[in-house]
Amino acid sequence: MSPLRPHPEAAKHTLSVQRLELIFGQPARTSRNTLLTRPIWVLTYGGCYGECAPLPGLSPDWLDEKQWTATLHEAVRHFNEVAASAPNFDILAAAMEPALERYRRDHPSLLFGFESLLQQLSKNIHRHPTTEESTITSLNEGAFKTLSVNGLVWMNEIENMRSEAHQKVKAGYRCIKLKIGALDWPAELELLQELREAYPVERLQIRVDANGAFDPDTAPLRMQSLQSLQVHSIEQPLPVRYDSCLPDICQPGTLPVALDESILHRYPDASSRSWLAQSGVSFLVLKPGLLGGFRKAEAWIQIAQDLGLGWWITSALESNIGLEALAHWTLEQTQKHQNPLAQGLGTGALYTNNFPSLLRVQNGLLSIPSLEA
After folding, report:
1. Which of 170, 181, 283, 297 is close enough to 31 for a disulfide, judged by CB 3.0 to 4.6 Å?
2. Same structural domain for residues 45 and 146?
3. 253 and 118 within one domain
4. Which residue has the higher pLDDT, 224 or 29?
5. pLDDT greater than 50 at residue 11
6. Within this chain, do residues 37 and 115 fall inside the same structural domain, yes or no?
7. What is the CATH number of the domain that holds 106?
8. How far is Cα 108 from Cα 112, in angstroms, rounded to an integer?
9. Taking phi first (over 0 means left), then psi (-120 to 50 degrees means alpha), and beta for anything else, what does residue 47 get?
């Protein structure tokens, strides 16, 4: 299938928005649901791009598409009104900030698109999202920086998951994450045991993501079994409604817990800091595309740093437009905080009709083109 194309108004200095449908090459299955397609909304302004990519069922501001898009178009109109009278970028960004701050709290899935657009504008970068493959070979090696990433094994039939996991290791990944919780638990555990026997912990870090598939009664024993296999951590073992039970399953010496969905509905303030300090969790999984953009994710990072928690950044099924913006920001944050953990960024290969991209993964390292390139 042919790649997606940018909006025809992209070159004009009027912000426009286009709804596009990404098509998965194979069903994306978790313990929560199965996705065949995924809508995104691409912002274009003066040769710069942003992506708003809410996920129904996860994005706290998504009630239905009609309501969500009405808010998006309101934000676009406001941006154009501000931009029409702003003589330069600094004034435009400052004038937009009150509205963006309101959206961070009430409409977080809008922020990623607007902040990544403003990020490009601030650096005066006009990057066309249909870059030809020939551009890759014209860039020298120094034009790329690398970031350690995990290989994601999607929920599937056990045999397919087994094959995919081995393929990831063969491709050079030193960290893989497996989606668990939707299949027969003994079969999932047997697969993890087989992987650990094949690859010692020094060779392969194994993370699992339950997407809230366990409950307070089953979680402790299952986590104990995972810990015996030297699994690194379990992401979101309990549904958000059981957040009050986290201190019970996050006892000292138990399998480290990473939170994802549990922070999507929270704001990074003193109350959340206190809650996290008492929860017993070890890691935060941050998705700027759903959390409310870069600034809000940075506030979560600061809380994690203050509490001595680990963290990694994860994409949330964005197109290559969002992934490139996310990759540059993630690289900045990991360097700033000297975070050595593998991050959860993909390359958009899930889709059959994605935008072309310069992002590449080799031996578990994501190559990111410099903004100047």
Report:
1. 181
2. no
3. no
4. 224
5. no
6. yes
7. 3.30.390.10
8. 8
9. left
Q: 253: closest CA among 226, 274, 227?
A: 227
- The H helix count followed by the E strand count for the chain is 13, 13
- Residue of 358 and 221 predicted with greater confidence: 221
C-alpha 180: how far from chain center: 18
Q: How many CB atoms lie within 10 A of CB 13?
A: 11
Question: Rg for the chain (alpha carbons), in Å?
Answer: 20
Q: How many angstroms separate the most distant Cα atoms in the chain?
A: 64
Order of strands across the sheet that contains 283-286: 151-153, 175-179, 205-209, 233-235, 257-259, 283-286, 310-313
Write 61-68 long-range contacts (CB < 8 A, 24+): 61/106, 61/107, 61/108, 61/109, 61/110, 62/109, 65/39, 68/107, 68/109
For the chain, the average pLDDT equals 90
The count of structural domains within the chain is: 2
Report if residue 63 sits inside a domain.
yes
Q: Supply the range of the domain harboring residue 75.
A: 16-122
Would you please indicate which residues are annotated as catalytic (active-site) residues?
Answer: 179, 287
CA distance 363 to 56: 33
Q: Which amino acid is at 23?
A: I
Is 117 found in the same domain as 68? yes
Give which of 6, 42, 61 is closest to 117, Cα–Cα: 42
Domain co-membership, 361 together with 282: yes
